[in-house]
Amino acid sequence: xxxxxxxxxxxxxxxxxxxxxxxxxxxxxxxxxxxxxxxxxxxxxxxxxxxxxxxxxxxxxxxxxxxxxxxxxxxxxxxxxxxxxxxxxxxxxxxxxxxxxxxxxxxxxxxxxxxxxxxxxxxxxxxxxxxxxxxxxxxxxxxxxxxxxxxxxxxxxxxxxxxxxxxxxxxxxxxxxxxxxxxxxxxxxxxxxxxxxxxxxxxxxxxxxxxxxxxxxxxxxx
Length: 222
Hints:
By secondary structure, this protein is mainly α. It has one domain (4-221). It has helices at 4-19, 28-51, 57-77, 96-110, 117-140, 145-168, 170-174, 176-197, 206-221. The longest helix has 24 residues, at 28-51. The chain is globular, with a radius of gyration of 17 Å. The protein starts with a helix and ends with a helix.
């Protein structure tokens, strides 16, 4: 399930995007706000305590490295990890920079999931709206359907690949705590950016505020 669920989340996102490709999804900012809140909360409630079982300034350095890494990835993906795709339409070529940056992000997401069901749920809830937004953007930009499917297929495989590597490679198991700390930095940057960017002018209306609170409450009891 750890390997299959993140891939299915991307597939579900694609199916939803196909169903709503003409009308669009007006509630997407609310969905994103919930997903960002949930991802942030499960990171703080379930993953952060694991890496800080022995307090260390070095762990903070790894977390900060993850934040900086995600900032760099955002530069190339133009914010696709947190639901904002700002690329020029180019139907004649595969969006390699977007794919590589998203793949690195998704690969890192997979490392903490092998032994953490709460984080698995958080990543699934994060992936579905991101896959919806990517599919809607590609369709609107007139990318060929085969290109869209290949992109999302490979993107969907990256997180399970990260989980597989983290369990099968002894070297990665030895550095599990530092790697998870870097992943925490990635999650912190992505989730907080989602929360702020999901609201116009950084202002929260009641629906978004309630969705954020709901995300925190649900994450606490997961």
